[in-house]
Amino acid sequence: MQITINLPEEIGQELEAKLGNLSQQMLEALAVESYRKGVLTSAQVQSLLNLPSRWETEAFLQRSQAYLNYTETDFEKDINTLNYVLSE
Length: 88
Prior knowledge:
This protein is mainly alpha-helical. It has one domain. It is 67% helix and 0% strand. The mean pLDDT is 89.
């Protein structure tokens, strides 16, 4: 599937000058946001971005902070669960 985005020329030029390849940047942003929302799996991200391995995909997702949905509350729940399990 091919998707086209219309940008004002001056904005497109400025973004490309600062970010590089806009098509790749948009594809990566879509992959990260879709992964965060649970729409895509890491295997689908790998396929979408033509990444060579699972490890490259995990590195990309970490660099992109795709795991931001893990909150302090999640962390506290995990600690409480571990404490409970270890106390038994």
